[in-house]
Design brief:
Distance between the termini: 50 Å
Structural class: mainly alpha
Number of strands: 0
Radius of gyration: 22 Å
Largest sheet: none
């Protein structure tokens, strides 16, 4: 759907295509910044961290727009709610592009508006049936991942709390691989966990 929308906008006026994509991506960046989730989960610092954040978010957003790759709905990547918004943007944008093309394209060879509308409605119908079929066969607990509002930090906090008492190594990996994500948790959670395990760490001297 997004591909057809971009194709029609490019034919009508390439500047409108750039505006459409630019606004869409800027809104996504703003969404990530406001939620404190702009930096990527890789454990890097300084200017490299900023570059990776900009590039990785851009790539993931483009992948969602043009492929709807469901793996990038993970909170480390685009996130469930943003994934859903991207789908709606693609659907709405495709209808708007048909309207813009029909009213403003002045080329010698112009596609018939009725043909475009029929093709678009058919594509949306196929997508909708496919989405319903997919939703009916996946595990029910996964459905919420397509619209949840978890950030990388909140997702890691849930994972940290979900691990059992004997999974201290997994908890440690969350903190060492994603050191930024626990800053929003508050001190109390980590303080209790650290005090509880301090004597054992002193005795075992883990690497």
């Amino acid at each position: 759907l997004m591909t057809s929308a971009c194709a029609l906008l490019a034919l009508t006026n390439p500047n409108w295509l750039l505006l459409f994509l630019g606004v869409d991506i800027c809104i996504f960046y703003l969404y990530k910044i406001v939620r404190g989730d702009i930096f990527y989960w890789l454990n890097v610092d300084g200017f490299v961290r900023l570059v990776i954040a900009i590039m990785s978010r851009f790539v993931c957003k483009i992948m969602v727009n043009f492929t709807l790759l469901i793996q990038v709905r993970h909170p480390y990547e685009v996130g469930g709610l943003s994934f859903l918004i991207s789908i709606l943007t693609s659907v709405i944008g495709s209808f708007v592009s048909v309207l813009v093309y029909s009213n403003y394209y002045n080329g010698d060879v112009k596609l018939d508006n009725e043909t475009l509308q029929t093709t678009l409605i058919s594509l949306v119908a196929i997508w909708f049936v496919s989405a319903l079929t997919f939703a009916s066969v996946i595990k029910r607990e996964y459905l919420r991942t397509f619209y949840d509002m978890d950030t990388a930090s909140s997702y890691n906090r849930k994972s940290f709390l979900h691990f059992r008492e004997d999974q201290e190594l997994e908890k440690s990996r969350i903190l060492t691989r994603h050191p930024d994500t626990y800053k929003a948790w508050g001190d109390e959670l980590l303080k209790q966990w650290t005090l509880k395990n301090w004597d054992r760490w002193e005795e075992e001297k883990p690497a």
